[in-house]
């Protein structure tokens, strides 16, 4: 029997969204903006940062743009979940991660007109842009979707 796995996927999405919002709350509540706490020396730090744009600081202060894009993307993801993801675990998981990540950053934009970022990673000599749990979910969701589309085809049927 093919399924949408609504309950487990909803729980996964709510967990990711909750973790995102909780970690951002802790950063806002207990850290000064710009403050860093080393976790693995200079290679992993918690750094309280705010971003009024998108990845790598693109589209700074374009909140209306982000509101519209997020609503459109969420609608498309829900449509694809309903129309294409039935019985396809990998695609369902990818969409749920994309939804949770999109909504996590959307909540920040609505409440603060900026996104709270705090995961600060140095990869060898490259200081990667500071990000958050929602950004991580978006990245993993995109990777899973690419794996589904390019490597596994239609995914596992009814796994």
From TrEMBL:
It comes from the Bacteria. HAMAP family: LspA (MF_00161). It catalyses: Release of signal peptides from bacterial membrane prolipoproteins. Hydrolyzes -Xaa-Yaa-Zaa-|-(S,diacylglyceryl)Cys-, in which Xaa is hydrophobic (preferably Leu), and Yaa (Ala or Ser) and Zaa (Gly or Ala) have small, neutral side chains. InterPro entries: Peptidase_A8. This protein specifically catalyzes the removal of signal peptides from prolipoproteins. It is a multi-pass membrane protein. Its EC number is 3.4.23.36. The chain crosses the membrane at residues 64-82, 89-107, 130-151. Its main location: membrane. Keywords: Aspartyl protease, Cell membrane, Hydrolase, Membrane, Protease, Transmembrane, Transmembrane helix. It comes from Salinicoccus roseus. GO terms for molecular function: aspartic-type endopeptidase activity. The gene is lspA. It is an enzyme of class 3 (hydrolase). It is found in: Cell membrane. Belongs to the peptidase A8 family. Pathway: Protein modification; lipoprotein biosynthesis (signal peptide cleavage). The active site is at 117, 135. This is Lipoprotein signal peptidase.
């Amino acid at each position: 029997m093919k399924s949408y796995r609504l309950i487990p996927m909803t729980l996964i999405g709510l967990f990711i969204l909750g973790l995102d919002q909780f970690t951002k709350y802790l950063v806002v509540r207990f850290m000064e903006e710009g403050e860093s706490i080393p976790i693995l020396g200079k290679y992993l730090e918690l750094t309280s940062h705010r971003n009024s744009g998108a990845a790598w600081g693109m589209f700074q202060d374009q909140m209306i743009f982000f509101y519209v894009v997020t609503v459109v993307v969420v609608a498309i993801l829900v449509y694809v979940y309903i129309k294409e993801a039935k019985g396809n675990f990998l695609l369902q998981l990818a969409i749920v991660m994309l939804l949770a990540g999109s909504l996590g950053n959307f909540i920040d934009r609505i409440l603060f007109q900026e996104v709270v970022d705090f995961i600060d990673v140095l990869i060898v000599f490259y200081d990667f842009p500071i990000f958050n749990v929602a950004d991580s979910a978006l990245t993993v969701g995109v990777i899973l979707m690419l794996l589904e589309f390019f490597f596994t085809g239609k995914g596992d049927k009814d796994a």
